[in-house]
Amino acid sequence: MIQRSIKRLNLRALVVDDELTSATAEGRAARALVQELQERSIEVVEAVSAEDGISVIVSDSAIHAILLDWTLGADDGHTRARKLLEFVRSRNDKIPHERFNESFMMHASTSPLYTIIVSNDVTTAMMDGPGGVALTSESIAEAVAFRQTMARVHRQFDAKRDWFFQTWNADSVRQNGSGRPIAFDEASPDFLARDPDAWVLHPGDHWHGFGDLEDGYCMLDPIKVSVITPGVADTGGLDERGIPATLVTAYLHHRGVEVEKTTDFTLLFLFSIGVTKGKWGTLLNVLLDFKRDHDRNAPLEEVLPHLVHRHPEAYRGLGLRDLGDRMFAQLKDSCQTRWLAQAFSTLPTPEMTPNAAYQRLVRGDIEHVALDDLADRILATSVVPYPPGIPMLMPGESTGAASGPYLSYLRALASWDRRFPGFGHDTHGVENRDGVYHVQCLRRAAGRSQDAVRS
Description:
The protein is an alpha+beta fold. It has 16 helices and 14 strands. The protein has four domains: 12-93, Rossmann fold, CATH 3.40.50.2300; 95-126, no CATH class; 132-169 and 220-329, Alpha-Beta Complex (Aspartate Aminotransferase, domain 1); 337-442, Alpha-Beta Complex (Ornithine Decarboxylase, Chain A, domain 4), CATH 3.90.100. It is 42% helix and 12% strand.
């Protein structure tokens, strides 16, 4: 059980305005600002000149915010204000980027950003009515057409015992409630675009890999198309041979095709409004080009020249298939995919609330800990592998044992990043310092606070 106690931070703000004591409209506005800050339990230090403000900063290191009148009411006010700001910038007690970024991202990332929420409401209103139905129907129809075309191409290669990419959806569907399943690519496009049952993950269907989940529990979004690369066995685990998706993403990027999200063996493409047959036809052609270049083991200097130019020691002399084989072997040896699954199916131990850990971060009661020393430490920040973009560990939670799933997964990522420069992972909360992962943890010397778990 988590023992929770609410601590109020003692915040101090410096207000610099030469009309603070004046009876002018500007003076009354400045006094109202001071009063509002005080009503919010923020201690206010007042200064009526830039020189007084500098004196306060020199003598008081506990100033958390500076509110500055840019003009300071004088002809040379801009110069005075700039002098104060330059003095603040010159001080050495700046907040480290890693600590500041944690607070900034809490308020400015895409999830809580107010402007995005508002734009969603506006877009919803714009899509209301027959116009919205027409636009979304077109996007769904194009996504269905691409999925069916990919299935036909895959079947042609499979008949020759050859490989190709495939989309993640049902292999067969029961059209119009009939008991006889038909191949996905042979179903009516209108049926696939209009009947939700074609996209439901039904229990027992082998294609989705979730076993006997509750029927009707979830369904695919037709316009979010996941393209699967070879490497994952139908029965689970990894095949004998495979092609990591990150290599395909690099190839597509070099050819001007952007991927929305890349996992170990999937590429996500969004068929949003404006995607036409011409655009997804280009994607299909580039995937066919990748197969051709992979099968002939095209030199990386030819197909990914920028990669060889930036990291010649790692990639000079290799072919596209050579690199794919090395990447796949690395995934198998490090068990990266298995550790990811275990990490997200295991609940970590909360040692304190995320808010309590964040307060320690704000006060600087943290330290950067290398991955090799990270066992059984309490995190000051969340650790979010991307993808899937879901927190693996939250602030205040324990990293667990060195052999546990969380640190084992991070070690697998770090090993990959060292071996394949240019294909590094983006993991929020992890700082890569010359190939060594570091994470912000609470200082052990501070001891456990009253917010800690008491069993």
